[in-house]
Design brief:
The chain is of the alpha/beta class. It has three domains: 12-55, no CATH class; 69-164 and 298-326, Rossmann fold; 166-295 and 330-340, 3-Layer(aba) Sandwich (Rossmann fold), CATH 3.40.50.2300. The protein has helices at 12-19, 23-30, 38-51, 57-64, 80-95, 112-120, 135-143, 166-179, 195-208, 225-236, 252-264, 298-314, and strands spanning 69-74, 99-105, 125-129, 148-151, 160-164, 184-189, 214-220, 246-249, 274-276, 293-295, 322-325, 328-330. The protein has a six-stranded parallel beta sheet, sandwiched between helices. The longest helix has 17 residues, at 298-314. The radius of gyration is 26 Å and the shape is elongated. The relative contact order is 0.11.
Length: 341
């Protein structure tokens, strides 16, 4: 049985034979080196396209010291916000010709071994969302000139950071609920020491607890649907006279759990209790939930983070920066309409 002839991968050497020039000339021509005549550059480019030539990434890494790869560290997949973030990063990175390698996805801090993986894979920089870096991990990145940019997080050692103005979001949500006639709130937070959740809680409390309105309690939603559901069960079990008239969940996934628990126990949202969230995930906008939320400026956050990362890869002397961007309150059907009060 005849087999079709195998086709070997095109290389700089094979292209040089086809073009009748040295390998160094081919290499310079493909890089657009002006020392090579335009006619020769065009001819070699045409030959490379016909031969299906692709640059060898390993060789490029060895010669330039840059891999062209960026590390990506994500939060837990149980929160749809991180799926939104991943989609936005991949889309914007592709438009810039950047490629990401996922090094960590989940709750908890970035371990030293994850930081060491940054070096093993020779990533040129790292984008981190919703994970804390140990001092040792930060030192590993700094010592090896691997710039780090944090998105949706407060700045840490040796890192730049861009995030939503979470405290402002909490304040504006409190204003919205107060305008709707609410005076007794429960906050369902993420648990632990999440800086985002703490800032949202702080901003909300600063505004809501004016003029006699009160935050009755804080419940741990553990940043997951199940945690929100358990918190909702606790609210539903309260005597009617002691119940809040609104719940502020510091993420939409928690708010979804709260709403389901309240409804399962015969309470109407928002007629009996209003429920507000944060993040503006697509699931929260579905008619079954219709959650009033605070939308983070995710495209702008990712754009700023990538700008910083690319800039620091090119110039390691650029100092670290930190910025917060304003989001947008989206009023939906899970809270009482202020105009109706």
């Amino acid at each position: 049985m005849d087999h079709p002839p195998s086709r070997s991968r095109a290389t700089i050497v094979t292209l040089s034979r086809l073009a009748g020039v040295s390998a160094s000339t081919v290499s310079r021509a493909l890089k657009g080196d002006a020392r090579i005549s335009k006619a020769t550059r065009l001819r070699i480019a045409s030959l490379a396209q016909e031969a299906g030539y692709m640059p060898n990434a390993l060789a490029r890494t060895l010669s330039s010291g840059k891999s062209g790869l960026l590390g990506l560290v994500l939060g837990p997949r149980t929160n749809p916000f991180y799926a939104m973030l991943l989609e936005e990063v991949v889309s914007q990175a592709a438009a810039r010709g950047l490629r990401f390698l996922i090094l960590h996805a989940g709750a908890g801090p970035i371990e030293d071994r994850t930081a060491e993986a940054l070096l093993q894979y020779q990533v040129d920089g790292c984008l981190i969302s919703s994970a804390d870096m140990s001092s040792r991990a930060a030192e590993i990145c700094a010592a090896n000139a691997v710039p780090v940019v944090m998105i949706n997080r407060v700045p840490r050692l040796h890192a730049s950071a861009v995030s939503c103005d979470n405290a402002d979001g909490g304040r504006r949500m409190a204003e919205h609920l107060l305008a709707g006639g609410h005076r007794r709130a429960i906050i369902v937070h993420t648990g632990g020491a999440s800086s985002n959740g703490i800032d949202r809680d702080r901003g909300f409390t600063e505004v809501f607890c004016r003029d006699g309105a009160r935050v009755l309690d804080r419940l741990d939603g553990r940043s997951i649907y199940e945690g929100g559901f358990e918190a909702g069960l606790r609210v539903a079990a309260m005597p009617a006279a002691a119940r809040p008239d609104c719940v502020f969940a510091v993420s939409d996934i928690i708010a979804m759990g709260v709403i389901d628990a309240l409804r399962l126990n015969g309470l109407r949202v928002p007629d009996d209790i209003s429920v507000a969230g944060f993040d503006s995930i697509p699931e929260g906008a579905r008619p079954a939930y219709d959650i009033t939320t605070f939308e983070q400026p995710l495209p702008a956050m990712v754009r700023r983070g990538l700008d910083w990362l690319v800039g620091r890869i090119a110039d390691a002397t650029i100092p670290d920066e930190a910025v917060t961007l304003r989001g947008t309150l989206i009023a939906r059907g899970s809270t009482r309409n202020p105009q109706a009060c």
